[in-house]
Amino acid sequence: MKATGIVVEYNPFHNGHFHHVNQAKQLSGADVVVAVMSGQFLQRGEPAFADKWTRTEMALRGGVDLVIELPYVFATAQASEFARGAITLLDALQCESFCFGSEQGEIEPFVNSLELLEANRQAYDRLIQERVQTGISYPKALNDAYLSLTHGLEGFVDLTMPNNILGYHYVEAAHASKSAMRPLTIQRIVAGFHDPLQRGVSIASATGIRNAFFEGESIEQLSAYLPQASIQLLERFHAEQNGFVGWEQLYPLLRFTILREGPTALARFADVTEGIENLIYDAAKQAGDFESFISRVKSKRYTRTRIQRMLTHIFTGYTKQSLTNGQPEYIRLLGMNKAGRNYLHEQKKAIPLPVISRAADLKGAMGQLDIQASALYLQAIGASSLKKEYTTPPIYIGGNSAK
């Protein structure tokens, strides 16, 4: 059997994701689609809209054959580390290719850009440092340096677009690790990464869908953008937890943690740098809701995403001392269908990492952080049992992928 890998968050799984899964299988000629999915906290520094088990089942009902979890240390990292962790896991699972959605829609510009930056690494790094010293954010400095190198040239990927940025880092990570996986991309259609909802179409961004829910629209009102299985699973989660999850819901516990720790202790958490702990502490003293809080902290230098990653680490207790540049240590199995199970059985001798199906088997620091982050997420959303991380087995859906 041949597998293609995809990197996902499914926050939540919508019609655009269904299109991606089907196109990935068609473009790659693979028998199974393997998804490496972020757990309870996501790359933009946000808690997941619904828990990882709900999102795993959405994926399996939507055509994915095998779902594994991207460890917290990678799932909440900047794009390059996020990509490195995900690509390493897909490679370990012996995927023949990986396929990502992009605004570009063609793979050649990604390869061209990688070759250009590899050939001009010193000049690129110097341009980045020069731009950072002007006080702009690091992502803006990266883009300015890239634009300087590609000015007037054609055939390179547009790295101002969010999915292109992630796609570039996937290709870069595969190249750096000398992976044999073949990179593939499909065109992102209809809705952009942050686009608000457009009525009269069937595909919307996950951001637009989440925002509409938080603004009071019902699942039924948004059913045009979601597969039927996603609708049913979201209704179940909403009923069980009396709502969906965002920073507004977690803010009381986050605020308590910030005020309890104080500025000096806040400085020890991952990504908290340059004295911003004082601003975070002062904002928590004043702001009664999350949006008021974030508006007091974000700036030209500190983007919302960067601040949210800091807050995620404060919330979960992930400190600078815990930071690792290591490799994924295990494959945490979240769910599979019959084809996914058969693929795992066929490849088990070739997989170099332990395949973990029970949280109790996560012994190292990386795995313990996954457990801790999940427990804090469950506590914050008022889950009936904090043992859910230990008692939930991998989800199994009989039969093959959706067609």
From TrEMBL:
Keyword RNA-binding belongs to the record: yes
Keywords from the UniProt entry: ATP-binding, Cytoplasm, Ligase, Nucleotide-binding, RNA-binding, tRNA processing, tRNA-binding
Enzyme Commission designation: 6.3.4.-
Binding site for ATP: 7-20, 101, 163, 188-189
InterPro entries found in the cross-reference section: Rossmann-like_a/b/a_fold, tRNA(Met)_cyd_acetate_ligase
SUPFAM superfamilies listed in its UniProt record: Nucleotidylyl transferase
Pfam families: HIGH_NTase1 (PF05636)
Reaction it catalyzes: cytidine(34) in elongator tRNA(Met) + acetate + ATP = N(4)-acetylcytidine(34) in elongator tRNA(Met) + AMP + diphosphate
Keyword Protein transport: no
Compartment annotation: Cytoplasm
Transmembrane residue ranges: none
Family: Belongs to the TmcAL family.
Protein task: Catalyzes the formation of N(4)-acetylcytidine (ac(4)C) at the wobble position of elongator tRNA(Met), using acetate and ATP as substrates. First activates an acetate ion to form acetyladenylate (Ac-AMP) and then transfers the acetyl group to tRNA to form ac(4)C34.
Annotated protein name in UniProt: tRNA(Met) cytidine acetate ligase
Originating organism: Planococcus dechangensis
Lineage: Bacteria, Bacillati, Bacillota, Bacilli, Bacillales
Gene: tmcAL
